[in-house]
């Protein structure tokens, strides 16, 4: 079966989008699932990259004492920067893009100098990720089972690029007063992208896997009310709502860059990531089955 490309996306920041991308990716690549996973960091903050680099010791920060030291170490690393380099017509070599972390986990790192986010975009830029996945058959036989994309919380050519490359997208939502606006805004963005690239989506549609409630404090009655409202509203009836939620994190340990929930000792968070991952796989399976019965 071909690998699946999934974007984690919301037009609001601070919804644990990066945390979910990282934790689900690490869990799927672990012995429990033994899937081959590629993480892609499209968020200009590059938090996913920084965290993964810390966890897997990609850069030996003990030898970094000046800004120049860090710049020198980062400059020659594979990076998403090489994918969106406007002067290139063909996709860059794989070793200019992908850092292999383990036998089952790799990353296309974000650009730690963030320069490429200021560049003008064009149609070629927007198709770059999709073209690269196809050119190197990254989701074909012997490729990745899952490519998980951490998207920027803004409408940009990188958001479009992620959507064009993806089979699915997931909306992490923190239940607060502005949640509904964030979901509506994202729906508008996805519809706009679909309308602009009709031919691409006709060949390779993108399907919503659902809303995952994040940073959820079940003791906060207002949050519970907003969550319930989104779950039961006709307005959002087209979205599956994950029954598993990602709870609000307490404690400093979970804030560390090199913290991995599935390796940690916080049972609540561990269970949450386990359950979300199981549900995510079930939703993909359900969609695949529905496609088979339609053909």
From TrEMBL:
It comes from the Bacteria. Residues 4-196 form the AAA domain. InterPro entries: AAA_dom, DNA_Partitioning_ATPase, P-loop_NTPase. It holds the Pfam family AAA_31. CDD domains: ParAB_family. This is Phage ATPase. It comes from Lacticaseibacillus pantheris DSM 15945 = JCM 12539 = NBRC 106106.
């Amino acid at each position: 079966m071909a690998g699946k490309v999934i974007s984690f996306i919301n037009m609001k920041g601070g919804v644990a989008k990066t945390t979910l991308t990282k934790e689900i990716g690490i869990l799927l690549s672990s012995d429990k699932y033994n899937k081959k996973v590629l993480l892609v960091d499209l968020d200009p903050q590059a938090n996913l990259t920084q965290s993964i680099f810390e966890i897997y010791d990609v850069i030996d920060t003990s030898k970094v004492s000046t800004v120049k030291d860090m710049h020198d170490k980062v400059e020659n690393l594979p990076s998403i920067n090489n994918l969106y380099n406007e002067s290139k017509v063909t996709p860059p070599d794989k070793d200019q893009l992908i850092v292999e972390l383990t036998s089952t986990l790799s990353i296309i790192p974000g650009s730690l100098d963030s320069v490429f986010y200021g560049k003008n975009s064009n149609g070629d830029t927007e198709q770059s990720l999709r073209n690269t996945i196809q050119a190197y058959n990254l989701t074909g036989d012997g490729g990745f089972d899952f490519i998980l994309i951490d998207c920027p919380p803004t409408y940009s050519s990188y958001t479009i690029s992620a959507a064009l490359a993806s089979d699915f997208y997931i909306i992490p939502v923190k239940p607060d007063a502005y949640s509904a606006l964030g979901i509506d805004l994202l729906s508008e963005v996805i519809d706009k992208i679909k309308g602009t690239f009709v031919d691409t989506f006709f060949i390779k549609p993108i399907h919503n896997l659902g809303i995952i409630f994040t940073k959820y404090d079940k003791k906060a009655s207002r949050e519970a009310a907003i969550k319930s409202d989104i779950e039961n509203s006709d307005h959002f009836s087209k979205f599956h709502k994950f029954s598993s939620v990602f709870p609000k994190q307490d404690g400093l340990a979970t804030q560390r860059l090199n913290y991995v929930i599935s390796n940690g000792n916080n049972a609540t968070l561990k269970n949450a990531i386990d359950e979300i991952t199981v549900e995510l796989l079930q939703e993909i399976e359900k969609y695949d089955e529905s496609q088979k019965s339609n053909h």
